[in-house]
Amino acid sequence: MGRVTQMTQRSPKVTVRRNRTLALVSALVKGVVAAGLGLGSLTVLVMVVWISSPYPDSGPGGALRTAAGVWLLAHGAGLVRPDTLSGVPAPVGMVPLLLVLGPVWLAHRAARDAAESREELREGPQDGPRDGVTGPSRVGAFCAVTAGYLLVVAGAAAYARGGPLYADPDTLAFPVALVVAGAAAAGVWTAAGRPFGPAPSWSPLAVQEAVARTLFRDRAEAAFRSAAAGLTVLLGGGALLVAVALGRNTAAAQDAFLGLAGDWSGRVAVLLLAAALVPNAALWGAAYGLGPGFSLGTGATATPLGLDGTPAVPRFPLLAAVPDQGAGSLPNWAAIAVPVAAALAVAWFAVRRAAPADAPRARAWSPRETALVTLLAALGCGAGTALLTAVAGGPIGTGALSAFGPVWWLTGPAALVWTAVIGVPAALLLRLWRLRAPGWAWRRDVTETDEPPEPEAEEEGEEDGVVPGRPRRWWAPWRGRRAAAGEDGEAEPDGPAPPAASSVPAPGPAPEAAPFEPYDFLPTDPWHGKETREARWASLKQSSGGLMADFPADRTANRTAGQADRAESADPGGAGN
After folding, report:
1. Which residues is 310 bridged to in the sheet?
2. Do 404 and 302 contact (CB within 8 A), yes or no?
3. Amino acid 569: pLDDT
4. Cα separation of 323 and 319, whole Å?
């Protein structure tokens, strides 16, 4: 019986090894499914356009191969069009950036789910921690998802080989594999909580010590956010420039749109292609505002100063926004407002972290730190602009069309120069403005450190009418009045004298003194009227049986008599004689 038990029970090591293998297989399947979803979605769209076309050029096999080629183009692969009028295969290297979002998001989501399944297996919601059950490691999840995705990429490239658009084999490793690996790595990093871990062991010791500090991580995060803000403003400004140019050349854009296709299915295809190229057009507009501009073939360049050379522009609606030949006018020069706005955005987002409005002055960054973070943000903005403009253009043919779009090695440094030259001084000025003198009535005055104030400081705060532990209010009309009347009701040297009590107490219990309020009004009830007071005094005099002196019920007289009585009691021997 014991032998049967040993044969039927599984050891913990075997169970863990089996679960880990199943988790790796599951991550591999997730990568395959993610790639299949992207490819299937684009294939359905291409097949709908092909079915609705009245005169298709090829059969369903050609449409499917075209869909596979376009899907590879969305990953950055360079395509080759063999069917040309000259017989020479023409390259197609311009990537529609809107199509890139789908594959990148799917790969990111698959890797994130695979990495998150590890945490779900390690800690169950009901049974507590499950030490005997483990999922794939983060490296394992990354490798499995990337391998599964690239398997589908290889199959699609092989299938599209005989179609009207096939992928260049040299571009499958770079940038297709790099794009997939980067999206998967970002997914695993997101599942881990986006940690900013230690630097690699092969990096210099100074770099490892800097990365280990929280202060360095905060500065790096601020620089990254500022760079992202500047890049976003550049893209938005470029899109605005393109929209304004298309609005001025509406007739030319409409003629190009109607001339490319005569049936509605062809026009839908042209409209979809134009929509996929909208981010490319925004980057072209940003490059135009930065100064280097963009190439319209090998012999023409468009800049705010003008359009030089003879452009080789194909007939396409978005290209109607290209400026006319000749020197640029004032509306063309106004495009430089785009990089200026991007530089100001970089400065503003950097200063928001350098001098927060709700933090003490002691926690503000120094001018050197503010300038350094702004400069790093400008460097990040320039690098991001160069990376995006490198894929926003590319060859769309041979000969004059072999160079089309912005030049990345000119646009990136231009973005760096604009954001650094304008952003750093603007950041320093904004820092001074946010740390201006507290008398400007909005910046609170707090202690320079987080330590509790000393007892002397608390006493001084109480004398000034400020509650310890609370921020000082620089506009408080009631401070002088409350400080003038001390805690015991005694008047300060510069404050008004408190009213003296009457020498004759009123019948009944003494009323409690109400706290002074700056906007209290005098009572209007008849109890304090002159006639009522005289009648009350006459009643008290009559009930006393002649013991009370005959003097009027006057506050001033009563106070004078009371002061004289106190003087006689203080000097009984007649010192004044």
Report:
1. none
2. no
3. 55
4. 9
Which residue pairs, CB below 8 angstroms and at least 24 apart, start in 53-61?
A: 53/263, 53/265, 53/266, 54/263, 54/265, 57/164, 58/164, 61/163
Contact 49, 146 (CB under 8 A): no
What digits encode the pLDDT tens for the residues 95-153? Answer: 999 999 999 999 999 999 999 876 555 544 444 444 444 567 889 999 999 999 999 99
Q: What letter represents residue 310's amino acid?
A: T
Q: How far apart are CA 458 and CA 17, in angstroms?
A: 66
16-71 pLDDT, tens digit each = 456 788 889 999 999 999 999 999 999 999 999 998 888 777 788 999 999 999 99
CA–CA gap between residue 429 and residue 456 (Å, rounded): 36
Q: Is the dihedral of CA 334, 335, 341, 346 positive or negative?
A: negative
**What is the rounded average pLDDT of the residues 335-339?**
96
Give me the amino acid identity at 153: V
- DSSP string for 405-452: EE-HHHHHHHHHHHHHHHHHHHHHHHHHHHT--GGGSSS----SSSSP
CA distance 431 to 355: 6
Give how far Cα 298 sits from Cα of 199, 277, 394, 407, Å: 44, 21, 12, 12
Q: Which helix (H) or strand (E) holds 309?
A: strand 306-309
Calculate the average pLDDT of the chain: 79
